């Protein structure tokens, strides 16, 4: 028992170290992304010229190189964009922008110099607080129906669990199945809803064991999707769906079962072959829902447009295109059709910050207004840290 406790403590410490390392890496990427966005807005043509000489630029730049780049730009020139002088209001905007650039450079330098320092163990709880108060959220008031006798063999718990732990574990199993029956697919999103309702951290062993038990029982199917977002390490996203047995089990409990986001992508959009695109669509869908949007994957529309999602909140309604492959679309037709669906406004999700800058430049020729974000930025924002009302888009024009 003592050895088991020590192993669990060691696992927790290692998990905490990985979490803080991921946090530092994501913070660096996010700060670099903001600087890249500013660079494109201020001197996109010059940045593209520099990228032709050095394809790794600007993601590989150090603070000194960022500072040199921004100092080389004349913010009071008569060119296009933000650099065009236009009175005292424009001067104030330029001054504020320069201050923001300096602050971002200092923060980026500080993060890089500090490296991946693992904080003291007592700080772990501060970084990973319980998500919202127990009993609130999507699963508030959830009650597990009585399990039919024909299914009891799939509803077993480990013998060493206490009665209270077993009841809570089974309740969490039911919550996960309910979310899957309602069409959700992303494990971290479902884990957050279950954690909100039962007082568990979304990456805790308690939540992980629920998914493992459901998979072992044959009620769900799980897979880890990957996408090369930036750098050498791929981004991974764990997803799940009900097996055929799982669907029958949910119906036996009286729960309607709908086609999940993941299943719909597999059926209508070659979701298994286009694994990276599937990851990006599902990640964005989760990010939008957690911010208070209603999401539909692969909505049916009239005409030739085939949007990846439609999101709705109040009177706002946007058809969204997710682009993780080539940017080449003849005559910007893809973005023109998207703008037509949105009443003259483009909504896009790119693979990373740099590609978002390129796509936004393309889309500005197709639509006067638009919204854009990217997988890299969404990951940096962390699904477990967002709440309803938080901004969904990284930039708008």
Automatic annotation (TrEMBL):
Matching InterPro entries: RT_dom
Domain of life: Bacteria
Residues covered by the Reverse transcriptase domain: 1-75
Protein name: Reverse transcriptase domain-containing protein
